[in-house]
Amino acid sequence: MATELFHSAPEPEKQLAHYSLLDALLARRSRRFGKGMRLNGGPLAYESTHEPEPLRLAEEAALAFAACGLTG
Length: 72
Hints:
Elements: H1 11-17, H2 21-26, E1 38-39, E2 46-47, H3 57-68
Antiparallel strand pairs: 1-2
């Protein structure tokens, strides 16, 4: 199984392997705003209280896999 590949992976990758699709769909709105970003005006105006932080290589890989999957 795919989660077996993450057995010796660092902790963030282990967490990703065990994060269910249902949890991701139910909580999707809380994950749309990056650290350090600002949305000006309107009812959704918001400014992050965090400093900008680039994605780690594993996070970029997870996003690329989510977009392309196994078939490209």
